[in-house]
Amino acid sequence: MSLLQSFQAYPAFFVTAVVVLSLAIGSFLNVVIHRLPKMLERQWREELAELNAQETAPAPRYNLVLPRSQCPGCGHPITALENIPLVSYLVLGGKCAACKTAISPRYPVVEALTGAVSGYIAWRYGVSWHTLAALVFVWAMIALAFIDLDTFYLPDDITLPLVWAGLIVNMGGVFVDLESAVIGAVAGYLALWAVFWSYKLVTGKDGMGYGDFKLFALLGAWLGWQILPLILLLASLVGAIVGLSFIWLKGRDRRLPIPFGPFLCAAGWLAMLWGEEMLGLYLTFAQMTV
Fold it and tell me: Per-residue pLDDT tens for 203-216?
């Protein structure tokens, strides 16, 4: 019996395998979340120096692989045994093995979230292309959400390839038909573009970043234009609740910006899994209130 046949015969085995793999993916996503913005910043500085004809000293190699992960407090290299998803954090008590500097709980949170969401997807869709596509989609959403939380930036290096990936996935009708995906990509971008300029004309301020346009286009390319109003409604509703909660409970200055990308990512994931059910409930409620 092949591995694929084993997965099909024993769904629990398949879900377990996906969870284990996704915990490792979550560990890698932590690297992407931390390093990709720094890599892009380095790239921009080098390009600016080149445009200004400035000579710069060669910088040490810095990418998603090198240098090896290390403690930000003492520089202790993280060994393989200290980098086992979730387990190492618990065994080390959330502290560096060398200097006992606290390790951010962000790392196990991202790993656990990735594993839990991926396991649910595997359980729901089983051994199928739908599962593979949904996993790629949700991993990208997790990376984008946390990068935006940290930097207020949604990297084109993730959003633009995922727009094309969504269109390619839907050539086979995995989530929606190709026509809905193409219209979704265009409508997603233009919808937030129109909101951005309307807000700017009225207030003279930027209400969101251009990365949000591309992220919404990404969601349209993967999930189709029909689901975009629901995603925008969910993201706006959750964003408003979170923003008001920060103001009331923590005294946050209401003038301080809150990134919109994480709410779009969360709403996109919810719409991917339960979009049809939520639309059905909404239509039923609307008919009852008429």
Answer: 877 767 789 999 99
